[in-house]
Design a protein that fits this description.
mainly alpha, four-stranded antiparallel beta sheet, 22 helices, about 55% helix, globular
Length: about 500
């Protein structure tokens, strides 16, 4: 029963659909930055001090990858991608495409912070490793006219509906996980619409339909309705897995939600929408239009190979369930926490007490994300680097905003900047005595060590750096700012500080 469900729940992909899916996805990944195909450029623009390799790469002993190497991998991946799209050397080219894209995706993840914009493409290319279609393919054409050997039989288990079924499970999970994250991290704000209202206001300048954005901001009740609509669409996503009748309406609802986000906020989910193509029942749709009955799939095998695919599907499902329950963010999975904070207003973000920092950091280090807030937009920041002016009468400035005002490079994307600072403050607080999170000159703790790495970058990027004395890493608390790390901007003054590591 389980084997039959995995292989026959959805119709197999035709050769035309394979070509359209691969071709459109490649075009989008080549134009929609920051997809993994932009990894060479993104890594070149990210300073190693801000790069955090994912656990999978660290296990392989891979840290920083040179952009030149990434460019070679990118070009080879594109070649395999085109071959997979035209149906040449199936399924080898599909597997090579996924491997290349997955590597670039993993490398990118260390420079993008929390970003799930191309996870659907990764899942789609993974699913396509289990799909073979000889109609409308070079393999089929060459086999018919030139005796080209087929790598798998025409009635192979890979010609079944396993690939679209696996993709359905993974994409439905992504939506459902986003809804669960909103319940976990911001239920009150999403229940009353204040969270959506906050994010709309923060994205107002980038809204593609300003009039609709302004209308929703001006009508809190409309925001509340839209927030509830978001939760309903996301939390009901699993229905699409089990109900054939509701599957296509659910997928259309997902697309509609992406389109509305495109109108009123900054994220553009073109790639996700394209990845939904295999989820439609195209044989049924074509039969309804033409009046002809759907063609029966050639797959008939139900032996060991079919059981192996069912095991793969069940294993992936179990892993997704674990990621959801544990709220894990270990690549290549995500629990989709982005924009899940229930923030009502920037000045009402709940801040920890100074005495709670060590306990909260301990929980956060163990994976309890609710113990230490995460910023999805700049206004939600809790940790930041301040630049202290040489003039004692002048106010300190936030490093990120100062560099932006000066029109210089920020040497890292903001989402990664916020992620690194959050993890750095947690690490620094844990390294210090529980009752003393503040900066001390006695030992070189992680925050100060990082700022020393950063100081030369700031001097190079900031033409007016001599007007400033120091960099300070600060954590906001309910009792005021706590400075956890500090370093002088002038190199001569830095070298005179104690250099003992702890």
């Amino acid at each position: 029963m389980i084997i039959y469900w995995w292989l026959h729940q959805m119709p197999p992909l035709s050769g035309i659909l394979r070509a359209v899916l691969y071709g459109g996805l490649l075009a989008l990944c080549l134009t929609q930055r920051p997809t993994p195909l932009f990894a060479p450029k993104i890594i070149a623009e990210t300073e190693p001090a801000f790069y955090t390799p994912v656990s999978a790469l660290r296990l392989l002993g891979i840290g920083w990858v040179r952009p030149q190497v990434l460019m070679v991998i990118r070009n080879l991946t594109i070649i395999a991608w085109v071959a997979a799209g035209i149906g040449l050397l199936q399924p080898i080219t599909a597997i090579l495409t996924f491997i290349g894209f997955a590597f670039l995706h993993a490398v990118n993840a260390g420079a993008l912070g929390a970003n799930h914009s191309s996870h659907s493409a990764l899942y789609t290319l993974f699913g396509m490793c289990f799909s073979v279609s000889y109609d409308f393919s070079f393999d089929g054409l060459l086999a018919e006219h030139a005796g080209w050997p087929l790598l798998v039989a025409r009635d192979s288990v890979l010609t079944s509906g396993f690939a679209p079924t696996l993709l359905l499970v993974m994409l439905a999970y992504t939506f459902f996980a986003a809804g669960v994250a909103k319940l976990r991290f911001g239920w009150q704000g999403w229940r009353n619409g204040s969270a959506l209202h906050f994010y709309l206001r923060m994205a107002q300048q980038t809204a593609r339909w300003p009039w609709l954005s302004q209308l929703m901001i001006a009508k809190p009740r409309l925001c509340c309705m839209a927030a509830w609509g978001t939760l309903i669409v996301e939390l009901s996503a699993l229905v699409a897995i089990f109900s054939w009748q509701l599957r296509m309406p659910m997928v259309l609802a997902w697309i509609a939600m992406h389109v509305v986000i495109l109108w009123v906020m900054f994220p553009a989910y073109y790639i996700q929408m394209w990845c939904y193509l295999p989820l439609f029942d195209w044989p049924w749709l074509i039969a309804e239009i033409t009046g002809d009955g759907p063609v029966a799939p050639p797959f008939i095998d139900d032996g060991a190979a079919a059981a192996a695919l069912a095991i793969v599907g069940c294993t992936v499902s179990a892993m997704l369930l674990y990621v959801l329950v544990a709220s894990s963010e270990q690549w290549p999975f995500t629990s989709v926490p982005m924009y899940s904070n229930g923030t009502a207003d920037a000045d009402r973000i709940p801040l920890p007490a100074r005495t709670e920092l060590h306990a909260r950091a301990t929980k956060a280090a163990r994976g309890c994300h609710t113990s230490w807030g995460r910023a999805w937009v700049d206004e939600e920041f809790v940790e930041d680097i301040w630049v202290r002016p040489a003039d004692s009468n002048s106010k300190p400035k936030r490093l990120w905003l100062l560099l932006f005002e000066e029109g210089t490079t920020t040497f890292v994307r903001w989402s990664q900047y916020a992620k690194v600072l959050r993890e750095l403050v947690i690490e620094d607080v844990l390294a210090k005595p529980p009752t003393s999170p503040e900066y001390t000159e006695d030992r070189l703790y992680p925050a100060t060590a990082f700022l020393r790495q950063l100081a030369p970058l700031v001097r190079a990027a900031l033409p007016t750096w001599e007007q400033y004395d120091a960099l300070e890493l600060v954590c906001r608390t309910s009792c005021g700012d706590v400075m956890v790390g500090r370093t002088e901007l002038a190199e001569s003054r830095v070298s005179s500080e104690p250099d003992e590591h702890h």
